Amino acid sequence: MASISPLSSLWSRPCSAALRRCRYLHHLSLHQLLNASHLSSLTCFSRAQLPLSRPSLSSHNPRLSASYHFVRSSTTATASVTTESEQELTPTSEFTSTKGRIYHETYGCQMNINDMEIVLSIMRNAGYGSTVPDPESAEVIFINTCAIRDNAEQKVWQRLNYFWFLKREWKTNVEIGRSFSVRPPKIVVLGCMAERLKEKIFDSDKMVDVVCGPDAYRDLPRLLEEVDYGHKGMNTLLSLEETYADITPVRISSNSISAFVSIMRGCNNMCSFCIVPFTRGRERSRPVESIVKEVHHLYKEGVKEVMLLGQNVNSYNDTSEMEELEPGSNWMLSEGFSSMCKVKNKGLRFADLLARLSDEFPEMRFRFTSPHPKDFPDELLYLMRERYNVCNYIHLPAQSGSSVVLERMRRGYTREAYLELVNKIREIIPDVGLSSDFICGFCGETEEDHAETLSLVRAVGYDMAYMFAYSMREKTHAHRNYTDDVPEEVKQRRLTELIETFRDSTGHNYDQQIGTVQLVLVEGPNKRAPDTELIGKSDRGHRVSFVNVPMRHSTEGGEIRNAVIGDFVEVKIVSSTKASLFGEALARTTLSGFYSSGTSSRFEKVLAC
Q1: How far apart, in whole angstroms, are the C-alpha atoms of residue 307 and residue 293?
Q2: Which residues form the signal peptide (predicted)?
Q3: Rounded to the nearest 5 degrees, what angle is found at the Cα of 213, between the Cα atoms of 210 and 214?
Q4: pLDDT of the residue at 484
Q5: Which of 24, 31, 137, 588 has its CA 20 to 30 A from that of 355?
Q6: 8 A C-beta contact, residue 599 and residue 385
């Protein structure tokens, strides 16, 4: 294992004895100060007497807040501190929790973010304290990991190195004012990397206390208790049933107007490059009713946009509530696509779920990710066209533009079938936005194969693309059967060419929006002009900024006021770049009011201007 990460130097600042004493006094509760026989004996307090609340470390050290993006739970009792005396007199759950406070970091996809919200809910129900914004203040440190690419794993190892330093040198760190936890932190590795590298993680210089896979989060409280008795805790068993359908996640996003909702877990596709089936297990879907219940809870909390999540989200198949199941042979795929895994029984499909949600929550927007191109039957596409609150945005991972490479990847389609699907989508949903994933330098990829990928990007004209150099993963079909024979420098050169090709082709999609009126959900101030401009997303997923001026409401009348976070605003687009739009705010409105009623008004409204 490498030496301590140089990141730890951020915390290695001089700290005099007088300053340490002042900090110590500042972090003692009023009750402890009143019961101290004399102040000179304060250093004799046991660690168990230290309160579990303190001001944010990042507020004392601007270098911390500038170096890391720490996410604070909306329920953290110290989130709104006024004066020191008020803080001392205000009782909080952090003072009474004996199990400790939690710090968490998440790497990887949106599913990992949602999983962390599930973990926080489980820990809260088990009696653990609130979250803190920095690891130096936590008694439990969670790091939720990604195993898709080697680069993501290397970042995790670096952070584990620092967390181990906090644990190993805890006594010294407390003495010099670097750490503020009441005991050495327990370090917990979660997610796909935990599943893939469980033995290696435990063997790494005893830096980790608990390793827990994506299907075992309910077991976390027990695993942490095992650590108290000197044992390591590990549960990486995969499940055929676990969906956490009965757990209400604790939202960690500072943006309260949007939320993630997981509707299925796992993947059956077995693409040759992908580790997900081995870290997330087989596909299983949540019952429709449990999803509707969670979305209803979010609606009451003021959430305006929901992202439906799944490793293969549009293969959703709820068989839990069907009295008579259809045979799997009736499962319709996109035309020209095939699947290696056959469906046993057909239940409620993704289109059924979207229809239910869009009907019951007409003032909420719905997006979804990440789908597979094989699961876009016509029924789903026509539903997206008809429902104004199902966004006109589809992520359509291609991975390669070469049919030869696609076959080696076991994707189940050819270049021609993919392009035919793109054409069908655009015929049915004219103003749709498309994004994709691409892998450069997969096993055996030739220059001709690479050129076909570049030509596919030009032919489709994506709004967004996620592009990566191939990183071979153990356990995959490619690892067992292919040779990673494309040199790293060739991978990087092809990746650069792919990125340049995408940037050259995407501008047209943004330029086409000039002159149209877009419905923008306001997410917050524009960071480039925070005092005068707001920014949000259009139905198509484009970032739109506009000057925030007082405006009327187009359907409700009432006061003329500035837009705020969570408002829907009609914006006329006046200019564009290759990645964003700028417009003139016309009026505040509602989601249903903007599109009026009927199925065709969605496009008439956008194209009328």
Answers
A1: 15
A2: none
A3: 135
A4: 97
A5: 588
A6: yes
**Can you give 355-385 as a three-state secondary structure string?**
HHHHHHCCCCEEEEECCCHHHCCHHHHHHHH
The alpha carbon dihedral of 261, 263, 266, 269 has a sign of negative
User: What is the mean predicted confidence (pLDDT) over 232-257?
Assistant: 88
Cα–Cα distance between 146 and 215 in angstroms, integer?
15
Confidence of residue 399 (pLDDT cuts 50, 70, 90): very high
Could you tell me whether strands 365-369 and 433-440 are parallel, antiparallel, or unpaired per DSSP bridges?
unpaired
Determine whether 565 is exposed, middle or buried from the number of CB atoms within 10 Å of its CB (0-12, 13-18, 19+): middle
**Cβ neighbours, 10 Å, residue 515:** 10
Which amino acid belongs to residue 218? R
pLDDT above 80 (res 517): yes
Q: Which of 16-30, 169-183, 378-392 has the lowest mean pLDDT?
A: 16-30
Q: What is the pLDDT of residues 402-411, one digit of tens each?
A: 999 999 999 9
Return the structure tokens found at 96: 């009474």
Give per-residue pLDDT as tens, 10-55.
Answer: 333 334 333 333 333 333 333 333 333 332 332 332 333 333 333 3
Query: Do the Cβ atoms of 576 and 538 come closer than 8 Å?
Result: no
Cα gap 470→81, rounded to integer Å: 47
Instruction: Give residues with Cβ within 8 angstroms of 49, minimum separation 6.
Output: 32
φ, ψ (nearest 5 deg) of residue 273: -95, -10
Assigned token pair, 411: 């994707």
Q: What is the mean pLDDT of the chain?
A: 83
Burial grade of 298 (CB within 10 A; 0-12, 13-18, 19 or more)? buried
Which of 315-341 are b and which e, b meaning 16 or more Cβ less than 10 Å from the residue's Cβ? bbbbbeeeeeeeeeeebebbebbebee
The DSSP call for residue 138 is -
Give strand pairing partners of 346.
Answer: 326
If you ran DSSP here, which 8-state letter would residue 80 be given? S
Map residue 171 onto helix, strand or coil. helix
Beta-carbon contacts of residue 295 (< 8 Å; ≥ 6 apart): 261, 306, 357, 360, 361, 364
Candidates 458, 386, 394; CA nearest to 426 is 394
C-alpha to C-alpha distance for 437 and 371, rounded to whole angstroms: 11
